Amino acid sequence: MNSIHKLAEFFAEFPGIGPRQSKRFVYFLLTRNNGFLEEFSKLILKLKQEINVCSSCFRFFPKNHSDSKKCNTCNNKNRDISSLMVISRDVDFENIEKTHFYNGLYFILGGSIPILEKEPETKIRQKELLNRVEKAEGLKEIILATNLNPEGENTAEYIEKILIPLVQSKGFKISHLGKGLSTGTELEYSDTDTIKNALKNRN
């Protein structure tokens, strides 16, 4: 197998990228000069070196010469600790933060649970979520902000089920994003006003 096919296979593993698009990426790189390719490869190599995973919400954040194990959001004393929003991916975090409407904390699942998945606990950070909620002080509400598609709804249902014992013992409530998001919508592609409305009307 030559380099074109090997690289195309790597790109095809990216979310939402099929064989045809992955080949386009490879051929695009072939049209770039050596300086572009060198910079591109350096950035890929630096990615893991310069980025940490938050020990609290599990989102990726730049180290910025700091030894902190928590991201700036989790370290921010002005955030509302009574609210925890559970989302699937880092890109959802970025989209919600753009609204400047939500001021609580986050937990990133790292994925979603496909329909009929036999081992759902392997698809998300289940243990980490339960541990976070169990140790949380002052928590009053968990907002399940998964995508309004079959996988997202299946994920939300599963999370709500595993959180029931903690709801009963700690007394917080679980809410879902309300009207404002159309069925089939992914948070990544939702505009600011739509997300605001979904948060306002959560139930």
Radius of gyration: 19 Å
Shape: globular
- CATH names the topology of the largest domain as Dna Topoisomerase Vi A Subunit, Chain: A, domain 2
Separate helix tally: 8
Helix content: 40-55%
How is this structure best described in words?
With 203 residues, the chain is of the alpha/beta class. The chain folds into two domains: 3-52, RecR Domain 1 (Helicase, Ruva Protein, domain 3), CATH 1.10.8; 79-200, Dna Topoisomerase Vi A Subunit, Chain: A, domain 2, CATH 3.40.1360. It has helices at 3-12, 19-30, 34-50, 72-75, 90-97, 126-135, 150-170, 192-200; strands at residues 51-53, 60-62, 80-87, 104-108, 141-144, 173-176. A four-stranded parallel beta sheet has the order 4-3-5-6. The longest helix is centred in the C-terminal third of the chain and has 21 residues, at 150-170. The radius of gyration is 19 Å and the shape is globular. The mean pLDDT is 88.
Brief overview, please?
The protein contains eight helices and six strands; from the N terminus they run αααββαβαβαβαβα.
Descriptive tags:
203 residues, alpha/beta, two-stranded antiparallel sheet
Outline the fold blueprint.
Blueprint: H1 3-12, H2 19-30, H3 34-50, E1 51-53, E2 60-62, H4 72-75, E3 80-87, H5 90-97, E4 104-108, H6 126-135, E5 141-144, H7 150-170, E6 173-176, H8 192-200
Parallel strand pairs: 3-4, 3-5, 5-6
Antiparallel strand pairs: 1-2
Helix pairs in contact: 1-2, 6-7
